[in-house]
Design goal:
single chain; about 450 residues; mainly beta; 5-stranded antiparallel β-sheet; 4-stranded antiparallel β-sheet; 2 helices; about 40% strand; globular
Length: about 450
């Protein structure tokens, strides 16, 4: 059994998944490797110098990763940091990288300051996935706009219907989509033109969001899926989704409600805690005790052309209390975040996420009729973003949870063994995860 994640070791040199935030994933057909780029995170205790420029991790199997350093050239960094008379940008956010037309294209965000809606999305290009990447130009620009305008941040690019599309935005004005020039990767129009809104929060929101938008098309279902996150990134962050028959929307939830002001989307995951007897962890923080995970989110759907399998790649926070701090507004934040690669399946036209980190398993489905017995279950209430603890229940062969779910054998991260995992969505729209209580595989 392969260990896929190490907690309580926040030195990126010994634990390459440490420090990942807003990660993306790319398969490089040239080197035959996977590359995950993420938001700039540096300084102690990560063991990195205070250098910005988009970190990257490489992998040969989506399980074991290597930290490779930063990829932007010095000239690109200085150019993108320059805010004229205002202080320079501190770090760059949420990159998305692809290999197309014989070059590597990386889209990344440079915002005026944390919490600002004045931002730019830059396109940088390279002949090597490890860089150096040089800026080609700005593809979205929200400097000088109103707070209710779309924020030029959190880029994601996909191709559909013969066009190249940019998805971007955040909770200020919502998430937008607009076409790019496929030959250059730049905007077809003035970068200040926002495009079309495809998701926006209710005028009287109870949860922050949406942000971290990403769209993909799934040929097997015929739908475009918009993934996004709601909640406070330090604790209550989550993963939600809507779908559409067109890249420009409308995107709707399972009840057909629009993601523009009427719905936050189908919730797929949130903060959670399975019981654990042997979670894999280091020893760099005294007093560390397993207390689940917090704030999964801001990820990307990723189809692996090698395994021919869907994954969802996102960051997640160690929920141990020693990692907790209290913000000025009283909210709690869990400061240590890691790269998570999670299998994704499609059931009845909707995605569901595996409850365990990917550990190199075949992910072959197990017949649902094999699932009778006692399970440890977690249910993700769409209206409650607090941490969900597991409980045990007995599922019969005709249980609706089994008939509308997906089962497979995988590594049990929390208990250092193999288990049978269950994931699905109930008739009432509640996502659930389960693990068979007695594993003999």
């Amino acid at each position: 059994m392969t260990e896929t994640l190490l907690l309580n070791d926040y030195n990126i040199r010994t634990n390459p998944r440490a420090g990942a935030h807003d990660p993306s994933m790319m398969y490089d057909p040239v080197s035959k490797k996977y590359y995950s780029y993420c938001t700039d995170v540096y300084g102690p205790p990560l063991g990195l110098e205070d250098k910005i420029g988009i970190p990257v991790r490489s992998s040969g199997d989506l399980v074991h990763f290597k930290y490779e350093g930063t990829v932007l050239s010095e000239n690109a960094v200085e150019q993108a940091r320059d805010n004229g008379p205002y202080p320079k940008t501190v770090n760059f956010w949420a990159p998305f990288t692809e290999y197309v037309h014989g070059e590597y294209r990386m889209y990344y965000s440079a915002t005026r300051a944390f919490g600002s809606w004045e931002s730019k999305i830059w396109l940088a290009v390279s002949r090597d996935p490890l860089g150096p990447f040089e800026n080609r130009g700005v593809v979205a620009d929200s400097w000088g706009t109103e707070m209710t305008s779309p924020n030029a941040i959190d880029p994601h690019v996909f191709r559909a219907e013969g066009k190249c599309w940019l998805v971007y935005g955040s909770f200020f004005g919502g998430i937008y989509i607009k076409a790019l020039d496929d030959e250059t990767g730049l905007s077809l129009e003035d970068p200040k033109k926002p495009g079309i809104c495809i998701s926006r929060r209710n005028p009287y929101p109870v949860i922050d969001g949406p942000e971290g938008g990403a769209v993909t098309f799934v040929p097997e279902t015929g739908y475009y899926y918009l993934f996004q996150s709601y909640g406070w990134l330090g604790d209550t962050y989550d993963i939600r989704v809507g779908r559409s028959l067109s890249p420009e929307g409308p995107y709707v939830d399972r009840l057909g409600k629009s993601l523009i002001e009427l719905s936050m989307g189908q919730k797929l995951a949130g903060s959670y805690c399975f019981t654990a007897s042997a979670p894999e962890h280091g020893n760099d923080v005294d007093g560390w005790r397993w207390d689940g995970f917090r704030g999964p989110g801001h990820g990307v759907p990723f189809y692996d052309p090698v395994r021919k399998q869907w994954f969802f790649v996102h960051h997640i926070r160690d929920g141990a209390k020693v990692n907790r701090s209290i913000e000025k507004d009283g909210r709690q934040s869990f400061k240590r975040h890691y790269l998570m690669v999670r299998p994704m399946f499609f059931k009845e036209g909707w995605p569901v996420l595996g409850p365990e980190p990917y550990g190199g398993e075949s992910l072959e489905p197990v017949p649902l009729t094999d699932g009778a017995g006692t399970w440890e279950m977690i249910f993700f209430d769409p209206s409650d973003n607090s941490r969900q603890r597991s409980h045990t229940c007995r599922l019969s062969l005709d249980s609706p949870y089994l008939t509308h779910g997906c089962m497979y054998i995988c590594s049990d991260f929390e208990n250092h063994r193999k288990t049978m995992a269950l994931t699905g969505i109930t008739h009432s729209g509640v996502a659930y995860w389960g693990k068979f209580m007695y594993s003999n595989f």
